[in-house]
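Quick question: who can interpret this fold?

. . .
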Amino acid sequence: MISLHNKNAVIYGAGGSLGGAVAKAFAAAGARVYLTGLHLEKVQKVAAEIQASGGYGVADEVDALDEQAVAAHIAKVAEQAGTVDISFNTAWNGVVQGVPLTEISVSDFITPVNMALQSRFITAVAAVKVMMQQRSGVILNLTATPGGTGYPYTGGFAPTCAAIESLSRNLAAEFGAYGIRSVNIRSAGSPDSKVFADTIAAKPELMRSILSTMEADTMLKKLPGMADIANTAVFLVSDLARMITGVTIDVTCGTTEGINYRVGMPSFNEVQ
């Protein structure tokens, strides 16, 4: 079993289903987990579940887009715990998908890019400033399939994923000399996550078709569950992965290869 004993992890977006799953996996591996999110009740629920399982979980309301709030929280964790060993950001905002680029507004296209990059930059820099002093630490981020391949009808989400992966590489390059690693997980989307589960409940027929197509896009003909992402996250922030940095680990079941058959060639009249 991979051990994260004596490691302190700060998680942004911990009230979400995937953020919560990773938080629980970190705690189960022995880490002290500091959970943050916009809605304190959701984060407190995850912290309570961690505590009920014998783990260490503390909840705080922190807006990952608020530079001062993030810096203050990191400073508090560093003072109380002694170190900040892991920073994981899984917060997403303002994603609009499902329509061609010709039908999406500039605002809908650029909003996820701006918000996600601002959040990742703020949280990473705050953690790095502490990690540079202790000369160790891991910055972990999450993206999705469009970060590694052309994926139609994903609007601003695709360049957002690519930009986060680029930021992750630069963090690794700039701060590796301080013993800081920066890694990224690319997911294909987990059917057991809340966003999928809610949509399946509301539109079962539509989602059956969508999930079937998504599975067909993969090499393994299945999609990764939240546990698959969480297990990968635990490994990447552990000492077993101490020589892995500056890369994105693909957990898409092979979706990043050859899915462009889904796009047809529009007729001349359709593009006028």
Remarks:
- The mean pLDDT is 92.
- The longest strand covers residues 137-144.
- The beta strands are 8-12, 32-37, 56-61, 86-89, 137-144, 180-187, 248-251.
